[in-house]
Structure formats: C-alpha cells, structure tokens
Amino acid sequence: MRTRLYSLEELNDIPGTTVFNAIRSRQAYHLHKFCMSLMQEDNRQAFRADERAYLDKFRMSEEQKQAVLERDFTRLIDLGGNIYFLVKLSNTDGWSTQKAVSSMTTMTPDEYAAMMRAGGRSPEGQRSIRGKK
Amino acid sequence: MARITAGIATSHVPAIGAAFDQGRTQDEYWKPVFDAYEWVKAFEAAEQPDVVILCYNDHASAMMLDVVPTFALGMAEEFEVADEGWGRRPVPVVLGDPVLAAHLAEQLVIDEFDLTLMNEMEVDHGLTVPLSLMFGKVEEWPVRVIPLAVNVTQFPTPSAERCWQLGAAIGDAVRSYPAGLNVQIWGTGGMSHQLQGERAGLINPAFDNAFLDKLSAGTDELRRITRLDFLREAGTEGIELIMWLIMRGALGDEVEELYRFYHVPASNTAVGHIVLRPLG
Q: Domain B3-278 carries which CATH code?
C-alpha cells in the first residue's frame, strides 16, 4: 500500500463543508451542463421565459430540477453541485455571488454581509467536527 | 535569453471586476482595495513586461464540465473573454504567445509535467480581474499572456509541492528560451475564503499573513501544506493559494519582497497581493 498523509475520510470532518470530488462531479454532470448553458444570452432568455420547460431539456434528476426552481443552493451542493457552476444560475438571476453564498448559511444576506465587513467567519471551532477545534 | 523578472500574486474576486467595470472603485467599500493596486500599476508601467505566464483557475467557464485538466496551458493567438452569466466583461481580448507557449509545452512535458494543451478556450474573471488590477482600463492589454489554468475546484487538486515543482520547471524553461523577453509570472486566487455550506464566509488572517511572510522566508513550510490543511485553515476556495506556489517556485531560492497588501473583505474573500523580485 502507498502511504498517505491523512485518510480521505478526514475530508468529511470539516464542519459545514462538502468537498467536491470526481463522483460528485459525475452526479452533477447534467445539472452543471444546464448551469454552463446559461453562459449564452439566448439560453438565459429561454430559461427565464419558462424555467421548467428549459430544465426538462437536461437529463438532470427531478430533485436537482426542483432545487434549481427553488434556488436551494444547499440542496444543489448536496446533489453534487459545485459553486463555480451554480453561480451561473445566480448570475442569471442578477444575484451577487455574496447573496448566493450567504443563502447556504443560517444568516440573512444582510447579516452575512455584516459578518464579512467585520472580518468574516473565524476558523475557531470550525476546523474539525471530531475535534471541535 | 528570456528572463523572469518578477512574480506577482493577487486575489481575483469577481466582485472586484464588477466594481471596476461599473466605475465603483472609489466607493467607500472598494476604495482601500483599488488604491492598494496603484503601486503595482506604476511598477508595471516601468517594468513593461513582454509576456505574463498567468496561473489562474477556470471557474467552470471553459473547462471543468467535459474535461477536468489538472494543468492546462493556453496555446492560442488570442483568448476571448467568457460570459459568466451576466455578459462578458468589457475588457480587451487577451493576446497569447503561441511560440513561447509551444516552447513551454515542449520543455515541461520533457520535464515530466504532462500538461493539457488548449488550442482554443475562453478566459474568465480568474484571468481578467488580475489584468484589470495591474493595468487598469485600457484599449488593449500591454502584454501577451500565456494562461496556465490549474484545477483547484475538484478534489484532489495538485499538491503544493507539485505546484512548486511545476513553477521551478517553468523558470528553467523560460531561461532556456532564446529570445530576450522580459517575462513575469503571476499567481492568482485566494486568500482564505469559502463559498459553500454553513461554513461559508470563513476568513483566516493568521494563516494568510503567515503565508505572505513565508513566500520570502519559509517556502519549505509552504510546500508541505496539505490539501486538508488548506481546506481546514483557508476554506474550500482558499486552496487557490497553490497557484501562488507555482509563481513562487519559478523565482528560485531567494526573493526580495517589493510590495504587499492584505485586506478583508472583498465580497466573501480576503484579498492578498504581493510583488516579488527574484534574486540571482
């Protein structure tokens, strides 16, 4: 066996964090294909005109489609999504990245913006679920 | 003979690009950030580099869906600016240097870095925001750019040590290029930030400032930072800092720090910026 510096299971030990990897990338492939389609203005207009009909052109799971319709970014991450793809959706909606990101936390957008202005979220207590440090 | 005359690192936050494009650089929120880049704008005007090797990450604009390259080198004469969902940034098309890029591709693969070569690709804010910060609003960019896109999105990203070694090989490849070009290498992204989950908004000034310090004195420690350490200490997107190590690896053992800036926040992110001169 080759040596490793740490067990890959440790990646699951970071609170409030999902590490995007190859299997998630595959799980979200069609969701991400939808997201990247929004890089063209024609497609953005078609999506805005009838979101459901536009989503049905993609081989995404029903759960993924529902989460897109609800702009549920936490759910989209659970379903394999990665933020760099997902911001194509929030950009299409005219949201700032900060608004999209804040929607995954327990704060309102204003509370989140105030936290960032005050220096952001401290890493203290946020490093390890097991070690609670 | 070509020479690498400086290494520059900067964050590449998209909101900085938006503030720049919308003329909000003197707003209370943005003024400290944009004012801090006046130094490097004067530096670049004096240095007049011919080519920048620009290490950045593609934010699911030109790759990461159908193909996920660990290291991808831009070979084209020009690179169009991507539409990331709110229209293209109103900045000039980016001109490449196919001849130097081909030399790099040849040398780096011989040196066992099996790069992906991109004959066509668009570039996103990861590459264009640093250009705006260094050169301001221009009709055309005053340098040719060789994009080097690094996977910092999908785990496992290349290790800190691998990035350092790639940088060292880039330095050797540039020095073996016959034309007398003034070449800079830039590392972009970072510093600490996390854009997903309940832990979003993470900022770690102690980690960031130690990282800045160690770019001059303590590079061995930077090369040993694991992916897990980056995720825990600097956030899921803070791992972009590995691209700074490609830049630093290309500069050789000793550097002089010419300028440094650190500021929190720009949107979700800690902004870091440093200018280094290789010694010897």
A: 3.40.830.10
